[in-house]
Amino acid sequence: MKKFLIIPIFLLFTASAMDAAGAGLQGDVNLDGMVNISDVTDLIDSLLNQDAGPSCDVDLDGQVSISDVTTLIDILLSPADQVTLTVNGVAFTMVHVEGGMFTMGCTSDQWPDHRRNEAPVHEVTLSGYYIGQTEVTQELWNAVMGKNPSKFIDPQRPVETVSMFACAEFVDKLSELTGKVFRLPTEAEWEFAARGGNKSRHYKYSGSNEVDDVAWYAGNSGLESHPVATKAPNELGIHDMSGNVLEWCLDWYYYYTQDPCVNPVGPDSGDENVYRGGCWKSDASFCRNATRDKLDPDTAMNVLGLRVVMNE
Predict the structure, then answer these.
(1) Is 145 helix (H, G, I), strand (E, B) or coil?
(2) Which of 110, 171, 278, 286 has the greatest number of beta carbons closer than 10 A?
(3) Are 239 and 172 in contact (CB under 8 A)?
(4) What local confidence, expressed as pLDDT, does residue 13 receive?
(5) Beta strand 100-104 with 122-126: parallel, antiparallel or unpaired?
(6) What's phi and psi for 137, nearest 5 deg?
(7) How far is CA 152 from its chain centroid?
(8) CB 186 within 8 A of CB 311
(9) For the chain, what are the domain ranges?
(10) Tens digits of per-residue pLDDT, 61-97?
């Protein structure tokens, strides 16, 4: 039986070949543009046959050994930063939000515009999840539901005039079409993502302290919605969390307590659901990361849309 060997890259390849390998996708051993289980089997075969190429140096330490197999498996098991899916010809991107802990509510970066229902601040711990890079577009809604309820018709603008119940139907159908588990974000998941997750720079708005940089709101919208992702993203690469349309959340509305919590989902029942984010009709103070309010789940207005979450 052949033993695994440590094979120094420089003994096998020229500098130009190493440069070309460095420009590729880490873990793409067979150079097919993807990283999957076939790369693991090809890497093991290369180690056994002692014919490893530059792409086999997965851990980028200048040599090929069993540690590269371990690194490659870690890459495969780690969530991707972004995942793009397609439904009936319409592509949409989900951004990974690494789990972490944050202070939720009227933190000092939200002053002096904070409201009473943002208090008290409290510590929240969340598991990882994926959230829409943009609000759900009219194009995606139509691809899933076969109709478009929006007032401001444009396939690249966010869908609006959708009730909480319509959104629940949408995520169920989206899950069925993709084979993934989609849902609305919890209020805590929404705020953590808006603040930039573990990469947060503690901005007042989602991605900036200047509302005009990141939000379509009453001060710049011309009193209508706009195509998604036409304002700057936040620290995680997520767009429009401070403006364009309001976004439904999964939680029934409730008043905060100061108790720390883990993966909160709100009360079991209620009369009104939480919505988050500013919109094209909001003033700047309502576009802050901590702003929250509530509506009857039957409500459908041209300022009200959604963003989806996908389980890891």
Answers:
(1) helix
(2) 278
(3) no
(4) 35
(5) antiparallel
(6) -80, 165
(7) 25
(8) no
(9) 7-77, 82-310
(10) 889 999 989 988 877 777 789 999 999 999 999 999 9
Residues 148, 170 contacting (CB under 8 angstroms):
no
Whether the per-residue pLDDT at 189 is higher than 60: the answer is yes
- In this structure, of 12-16, 216-220, 233-237, the range with the lowest mean pLDDT score is 12-16
What residues contact residue 125 under an 8 Å CB cut-off, 6+ apart? 99, 100, 101, 260, 261, 262, 263
pLDDT at 32 (0 to 100): 82
pLDDT at 14: 31
Strands (E), the chain: 7-8, 63-64, 82-87, 90-97, 100-104, 122-126, 129-132, 182-183, 246-252, 261-262, 273-276, 292-295, 304-305, 309-310
Q: Which residue in this structure is represented by tokens 């970066």?
A: 109
Q: Rounded distance, CA 220 to CA 222, Å?
A: 6
Beta strands in 214-271 (DSSP E): 246-252, 261-262
Residues belonging to the chain: 312
> Are 7-77 and 82-310 the same fold in CATH?
no
pLDDT at residue 24, as a whole number:
59
Confidence class of residue 27 from pLDDT cuts 50, 70 and 90? confident
What is the CATH number assigned to the segment(s) 7-77? 1.10.1330.10
Amino acid (1-letter code) at residue 105: G
Query: Among candidates 54, 36, 130, 24, which has minimal Cα distance to 85?
Result: 130
For residue 114, give the nearest of 288, 235, 272, 261 by alpha carbon: 288
Strand partners, 87: 90
Q: Please give the residue that has the higher pLDDT: either 133 or 60.
A: 133
- Neighbour tally for 232: CB within 10 Å: 15
Q: How far apart are CA 199 and CA 94, in angstroms?
A: 17
Q: Please report which residue ranges of the chain form alpha helices under DSSP H.
A: 15-22, 37-49, 66-77, 138-145, 164-178, 187-194, 211-214
Output 77 or 179, whichever has higher pLDDT. Answer: 179
Say which CATH superfamily domain 82-310 falls into.
Answer: paralog of FGE (formylglycine-generating enzyme) (3.90.1580.10)
Question: Residue 154's CB: how many other CB atoms inside 10 A?
Answer: 16
